[in-house]
Amino acid sequence: MDNTQVERHNLSKSEVVSIMPLACSNEDVAFEFFEALRWGGTPACVWCHSQNVYKMADSKTGRRNKRYLWRCRDCDKQYTVRIGMVWEESRLPLRHWAYAFWRACTSKKGVAALEIMRHCQISYKAALFLMNRIRFAMAPDANTPKLTGTVEADETLVGGKVIGKGVYYGKHHKTIVFSAVERGGCKRSRVVADVTSKTLKQALTEEVDRQARIFTDEHVSYRGVEDIFEGGHETVCHSTREY
């Protein structure tokens, strides 16, 4: 896939997958790729939001400006796709950002700054800055609407098994992860300190709308949830293979 296909600004999922390898290695493709993702088919000014914009070109060669500048005909200001994004005020090439985003999204166990440093041939300080910005961008939005309707909630232990040590809630060596799933909708997961009633109820109220109907197992910490949520609280019994 070449730059012309990227410039159409209406990328399908399969096209995004095919473009990513080029965006990770070619700066021109990386800029076109991020512009397509940000603006779609309607590039707009980042200052006044006008769509009366154009790409600036070199007066001698006629090719696109080396800084990948756009200009707005209404407010007469210049800008690039970097403005207002996590890579603003960064001199790192966008192809490195594309590669780091790709690795962060496709790695089940995450990606270390040292790996980005080696693969992109940049300093560790730059790689750490890059990964911190990406993790910030990928963090859940604080303004995300809460889960509604019928919501199923549960907690589990995550981590490797240590030989000779038991796994139980009182004293364990694993991480406790709480999850709430809206039937037919979104889900929320978070690490919690313990499985006490106070902790789990706080997690529920922060992630789930008070009008929702809650389903959990018979864990004692969920007792009293029906007093918080107007939709009620129902339980399932795992010991009888009810899920």
Structure description:
The structure is a single chain. The strands form 2 sheets. Strands 6-5-4-7-8 form a 5-stranded mixed beta sheet, with helices on one face. A 3-stranded antiparallel beta sheet has the order 1-2-3, with no helix packed on it. Residues 1-9 have low confidence and may be disordered. A hairpin with a 5-residue loop joins strand 2 (70-72) and strand 3. With 243 residues, the protein is α/β, with parallel strands linked by helices. The chain has helices at 3-6, 13-23, 27-39, 94-106, 113-120, 124-138, 197-207; strands at 53-55, 70-72, 78-79, 150-158, 175-182, 187-192, 213-216, 233-235.
Query: pLDDT average, as an integer?
Result: 85
Helix percent band: 25-40%
Basic shape: elongated
β-strand percent reads 15-25%
Outline:
The protein is of the alpha/beta class and about 240 residues long. It has helices at about 5, 15-25, 25-40, 95-105, 115-120, 125-140, 195-205, and strands at about 55, 70, 80, 150-160, 175-180, 185-190, 215, 235.
Q: What are the salient characteristics of this protein?
A:
243 residues; alpha/beta; 16% strand; 31% helix; five-stranded mixed beta sheet
Topology overview:
Layout: H1 3-6, H2 13-23, H3 27-39, E1 53-55, E2 70-72, E3 78-79, H4 94-106, H5 113-120, H6 124-138, E4 150-158, E5 175-182, E6 187-192, H7 197-207, E7 213-216, E8 233-235
